[in-house]
Design goal:
By secondary structure, the protein is of the alpha/beta class. It has helices spanning about 10-30, 50-65, 80-90, 105, 110, 145-155, 170-180, 195-200, 215-220, 245-250, 270-285, 285-295, 305-325, and strands at about 40-45, 70-75, 95-100, 120-135, 160-165, 185-190, 210, 225-230, 255-265, 300.
Length: about 325
Amino acid sequence: MAAFRSLPLHAACIAATLTAAVTVAAPAYAADNYPSRPIRMIVAYPTGGISDTVARALGEKLSAQMGTSVVVENKAGAGGSIGIDAVAKAAPDGYTLGFASTSPLTLNPHVSHVNYDPQHDVAPVMSVMYSPVLVVATHSFTGKSFQDLIAQAKARPGSVRWATSGLGTVGHVMLEQIKAKSKAEVTMIPYKGAGQQLNDALGGQFEVMSTNASPMLTQHMQAGRLRAIAVGAPKRIDSLPNVPTFDELGYPKANLTSTFGIFAPGKTPPAIINRLNAELNKALAEPDVRDRLMRGGEVPTGGAAAQFGAAIRAESAENARIVKEAGIKAD
């Protein structure tokens, strides 16, 4: 809350009161008249993935609720940093939003160069979901469990090949935490995204991979082509009740998820942030939106903008520590 000091002159008091009234009224007026034109939502990932699907579902609800169109635009690349950079550089008027994981703010800046200040150039609006990070075995892995994987890696160092969706990603951080505690020697294979990684998993080009939950992955697991052996999540996920979390397996620092949310340019007025947060929470509560998320293994979240911002700051501090200890670099 802003601090106030008393002024001795009556005229000065009147002037200060009028100034304060104008300052307070400006964002309220903007929120009352917002939106008056279409809203652009930048998705920091390619079309067709779970992020794109969820963003479009939320966009449809916002359009109906707020009486304006929401145009979804995909700007993929650099682990979400390209899309977030576009949001950071947009006018802070509530007409440009971004949908991305928290990694472009909490992880990417610690492992590579980004062209925005993650603390000031981007404003968290609402947490939308967390995506469990699964460790999935291909037909090249002959073991039955995650414990078998660690045992094989210790017995034959380098024989276990672990694919991630890229250097400096959550899957990479997860693997480094597992290696540090288990002392097992695992060969990491970094991909540039999840598409080719999944194709090579189906071909048995490596033993295991770490990847976010998705409808496509769920289909392949249900068909028996892939098999989950561990999951990063606060608790076991409903769709895979027999798959233990990394907490249960004794690797609490590897028990990581990917949180996704809506962001705005950093200087967007608080009144507009609050309006968007309220509308987004309402949209996320719709049964068809929640069902769309949960079918793909995602877990809806929601909540206040301030709560999301605090979680991002805590996550960034923890990632900075992990990256430094493990010496992780993406470039």
